[in-house]
Write a structure and sequence with these properties.
Layout lengths: L6 H12 L2 H8 L3 H15 L4 E2 L6 E2 L1 H25 L6 E8 L11 H9 L4 E8 L2 H10 L4 E4 L8 E16 L14 H4 L4 E4 L17 E2 L2 H9 L4 E5 H9 L3 E3 L6 E11 L6 H13 L3
Parallel strand pairs: 3-4, 3-5, 7-8, 7-9
Antiparallel strand pairs: 1-2, 5-11, 6-9, 6-10, 6-11
Helix pairs in contact: 1-2, 1-3, 1-4, 5-10
């Protein structure tokens, strides 16, 4: 049920997220000509063009990019408003937007799947959205309300959010089969020797900062898959969670560089906004997550 609606904004956001009118018609259940009329009406109301469409394809104007971000934010807040009112009739409804970091499905002790199973076993009308991002972006999403819950190794915790520890993740430094250190004996693997080789790193992970050589360019990656690709090239060293790296280690593509200073542990937390009045869906999901951990 939608208590507050803005059909023009809903159509505009759908067109942007679908990449054009053609795919948006399936999402919206209306024809391309009807979509075109709505976008035209939106532009008349705003007094400027939000997108270019034609033989060159669909693209947003500069003002359209700003309008899209604001429209998306407004529609999310409207959905939350609808949910807060409809939940007064004891329905579990609305959106549940969960943020996570990448490659955690194989993390031992990670509770997201069993928590979702428990949550979804109830009768509900909840629209789930799972977002993958860095801990910094997840924190920002929680503060602004774009996310309701996030699970990540939050090293820099902020006062506006509440955190509960849920599990840990072990990281090791790895090299690929074609790297010079792949066949090196263990006694040669020291932090000093590693200064001779370039190390790739994630922008949000300080664990490898001390290993990065000032004389070599240090590539920065956004996710674990990109990190694994660079390690497999044989040119870079890189740190990966051991549960994620095992597939490469088992087939002989990666080697763990064993040294006490090259192994560290990240602590994962589930976080939510401290001051928000939790909707029923958010409360139940937090409850289910802690429940599967017996916390």
């Amino acid at each position: 049920m939608k208590l507050l609606r803005n059909t023009l904004l809903e159509t505009f956001v759908a067109v942007v997220e679908c990449g054009g009118f053609s795919d948006a018609q399936h999402r919206l259940g209306i024809t391309q000509s009807a979509i075109s009329c709505r976008i035209r009406d939106l532009e008349i109301t705003l007094g400027y063009r939000v997108c270019e469409r034609g033989r060159g394809g669909f693209c947003l104007t500069e003002r359209g990019k700003i309008a899209y971000e604001k429209a998306r934010d407004v529609l999310r807040r409207v959905r939350d408003f609808d949910s807060e009112l409809t939940e007064l009739r004891d329905n579990i409804s609305g959106d549940l937007r969960i943020g996570i970091v990448d490659t955690i499905s194989s993390l031992p002790g990670f509770p997201l799947v069993p928590a979702m199973q428990k949550f979804l076993s109830r009768k509900n009308e909840v629209q789930l959205e799972v977002v993958v991002a860095s801990p910094t972006d997840l924190t920002q999403g929680l503060i602004t309300g774009l996310l309701h819950v996030a699970i990540a190794p939050f090293k820099n915790q902020v006062a506006e959010l509440s955190y509960a520890e849920i599990c840990t993740e072990v990281h090791n430094l790895y090299c690929g089969r074609d790297h010079p250190l792949f066949s090196a004996p263990p006694e040669e693997i020291t932090p000093d020797i590693l200064q001779k080789y370039p190390v790739c790193r994630r922008a949000y992970d300080p664990g490898t900062a001390a290993l990065v050589s000032a004389s070599e360019p240090s590539p920065v990656v956004a996710n674990m898959e990109a990190m694994a690709m660079l390690i497999e090239s044989g040119h870079y060293l890189g740190a990966l969670p051991d549960h994620f790296a095992q597939a490469w280690v088992q087939r002989g593509a990666f080697k763990e560089l064993t040294h006490e200073e090259l192994r560290w542990t990240s602590t994962f937390y589930i976080a939510a906004r401290e001051s928000q009045v939790q909707r029923r869906a958010v409360e139940l999901f937090l409850q289910d997550t802690m429940g599967v951990l017996n916390l």
